[in-house]
Amino acid sequence: MSQVDKQLENLKSTIEQEVPNDVSVTDVKYEGPELVVYTRDPKRFAGDGDLIRRLASKLRKRITVRPDPSVLSPPKRAEGEVRDVIPEDAGVTSLDFHEDTGEVMIEAEKPGMVIGRRGSTLREITQEIGWTPEVVRTPPIESSTVSNVRNFLKNEREERRDILERVGRQIHREEMADDEWVRITTLGCCREVGRAAFVLSTPETRILIDCGDKPGAEGEVPYLQVPEALGAGAATIDAVVLTHAHLDHSALLPLLFKYGYDGPVYTTEPTRDLMGLLQLDYLDVAAKEGRTPPYESAQVRETIKHTIPLEFGDVTDIAPDVKLTFHNAGHILGSAVTHFHIGDGLYNVAFSGDIHYEDTRLFNGAVNDFPRVETLVLESTYGGRNDYQTDQADSEEALKRVINETYEQGGKVVIPAFAVGRSQEIMLVLEEAMREGDIPSMPVHLDGMIWEATAIHTTYPEYLRDDLRNRIFHEDENPFLAEEFNHIDGGEDERQDVADGEECIILSTSGMIEGGPIMSWLRHIGPEPDSNLVFVGYQAQGTLGRRIQNGWDEIPVSDWGNGGRGDTLSLEMGVETVDGFSGHADRQGLENFVKTMNPRPEKVLCVHGDERSVQDLSSALYHDYNMRTFAPKNLETFRFK
Q: Relative to the CA of 225, which of 213, 358, 427, 611 has its CA 20 to 30 Å away?
């Protein structure tokens, strides 16, 4: 018998001692980080709301209770009983019964009403029918991504359970090493923006954090071939942790599965969905531009199949000697600061990912409240000495000024925007400005993936800023459903009609003008001197967006959708930059993030910024807070214990 099997036997014995004598425990299994308890008495578990909590506290494990299939009421009868229990106002749109696990998936417009106060309605459902309810939100805006991901995972349930059981056994395996040390190896995004990737190693475990591409630099990928990463074989990686979905952090995750990785990917649920959306678009853009993509859509599906979503604040075992906790990073939907607790109090490391420290219209500011952090790996995108962003209110006034001036001269405002994050932030500014009369009401055309990304935002309002979440939850005032917003879904014909039409605002991907439908808008509207191109997001070195920002007015424009062939366009429209809408903290925000940590970290690695930015921030943190700081190069390894 293996060590894990002995462990499960002992856990089953402990659980049997803790539950009432007449409550059966038929099986105990690991599924990923969770301990799953099967019982013929699910109604008894549901009747004692504290029983699972007491077990989780005693065993120090995340516990899920499932009914033994032998005691389930037939789905047809159970469906009627479920609908009787759930308030009609919850807006249940579907019920899906899974007899292999005894779970019923309930999709509803108002999941909170299905859950009930402190889970009371869920317990009542189990008491009535024995099935274990799982609840998901019906997207207020129909999302093909959310629908496709849910259907895919439903169809792959059997294989996914096998994956989870294998991962669970790997997490809870016996520790073999006697040594104690912690190392971080930098595989990308050091003294540069993009291709984020790090390996966190202990004698027992190897974890890859992020695996992205580099905007504007085709072929520059993380150093995955080194022994610390895939050079020793994909099987030597125990887990992958993804901070957020932007392609400079997520684009190359599917490449791992192409190379034979078969382990878990930990991230938040909205990041999983956004990741799939952006990765498939990444392949689509490569094909349209005549480039050979590094992987196929099959590997994107494998990535999703192996993803284990975690919620903010949940402390989760991901290896025998590593616990992971996600905290809100304030950057984009689902973005997370990742905190690793290593060993039995041995060492703590936090990776900021990309952060925004102050509240924005979309998100609460980044969390920096950790019990302990000895080393912080900190993004430095705006870490330069003079990288102070405009106040948000001033930025919004500047944007409204440009829109009003452009409207008065009969032009159009074209805003290249990242589909995820900046677009939704700008949408909220425009919706309020039109509602309050600060700018004229006019069509706002959303092109590329912006509408689909917005639909995903409305699927997960619990990840949005408190007041915005309440508007979507309680007030039926979803700002993303304002009548001014128009989804461009008619291709070139619709773009031509918009270009020939009245004053309007156009939000289009890509945000750094590296391909995508923005190229079409530049062809249509670029020659109009009465119109304006407005940058609201970071433009990386080497991108066409940065070149235009720096004064280029003769630009290459690909024939989008025709193999990347194109010509040169003379840009006659005005070019404006409105700072303050970035999803990244500026220099002051980064310093405040560190300054207000209590206790502060002993060491800080400044990464994800150009050479000047990381060195400036590293120097400032050293001088101001007397901590050891580093501005590492790629392929450096740091030992911390």
A: 611
Q: CB–CB of 207/322 below 8 Å?
A: yes
For 200, the token pair is 């966190």
Do residues 262 and 306 make contact, with C-beta atoms less than 8 angstroms apart?
A: yes
Residue 564 in tokens: 């990347």
Average confidence (pLDDT) over 601-623 = 97
Query: Which is it for the CA torsion 55, 60, 66, 67, positive or negative?
Result: negative
> Distances from the Cα of 471 to the Cαs of 88, 135, 362, in angstroms?
21, 21, 12
Q: CA 50, CA 113: separation in Å to the nearest integer?
A: 21
Taking Cα atoms as reference points, which of 295, 297, 298, 292 lies closest to residue 563?
A: 292
CA nearest neighbour of 607 among 640, 639, 633, 636: 633
215, 240 in Cβ contact below 8 A? no
Mean pLDDT score, 522-527: 94
Q: Distance between terminal CA atoms of the chain?
A: 34
Cβ contacts of 168 within 8 Å, gap of 6 or more? 29, 30, 31, 32, 33, 34
Mean pLDDT of the chain: 92
- 373-411 burial, b if ≥16 CB within 10 A, otherwise e? bbbbbbbbbbbbeebebbebeebbebbbebbeebbeeeb
HSE-up of residue 147 (Cα within 13 Å, Cβ side): 11
**How large is the average pLDDT for residues 221-242?**
93
Higher-pLDDT residue of 474 and 501 is: 501
CATH 3.30.300.20 boundaries in the chain? 3-158
CATH topology of domain 3-158: GMP Synthetase; Chain A, domain 3 (3.30.300)
Residue 538 pLDDT grade (very low, low, confident, very high; cuts 50, 70, 90): confident
Considering only CA atoms, give the Rg of the chain.
Answer: 25
Q: What share of the chain is helix, strand, coil (3-state, %, to 5)?
A: 40, 20, 40
Structure tokens at 174: 């016996």
Q: Residues of CATH 3.40.50.10890 domain(s) within the chain?
A: 392-577
Quickly name the fold that domain 392-577 has: Rossmann fold (3.40.50)
Instruction: Round to whole Å and give the CA distance between 336 and 328.
Output: 5
Residue 564: pLDDT band by 50, 70, 90 thresholds? very low
CATH 3.60.15.10 in the chain: give the residue spans.
159-170+183-386+584-639
Structure tokens given for 293 = 């993509």
CA-wise closest residue to 332 among 241, 248, 216, 396: 248
Give pLDDT tens digits for 443-464.
999 999 999 999 999 999 999 9
- Preceding amide of 599 cis, omega within 30: yes
- Joined together, the tokens standing for residue 551 give 């004064």
The string of pLDDT tens digits covering residues 298-318 is: 999 999 999 999 999 999 999
**Nearest residue to 381 (alpha-carbon basis) of 209, 190, 145:** 190
DSSP-assigned letters across all residues of 500-532: HSSS-EEEES-TT-SSSTHHHHHHHHTT-TT-E
- pLDDT score, position 390: 84
pLDDT for residue 347 is more than 90: yes
| DSSP one-letter string for 18-87 | HS-TT----EEEEETTEEEEEES-HHHHHH-TTHHHHHHHHHTSEEEEEE-GGGPPPHHHHHHHHHHHS-
Whether 370 shows a pLDDT value over 80: the answer reads: yes
Q: Do 472 and 140 meet the contact criterion of CB atoms below 8 Å apart?
A: yes
* Domain 159-170+183-386+584-639 grouped into CATH 3.30.465.10: no
What are the structure tokens assigned to 5, written together? 């099997």
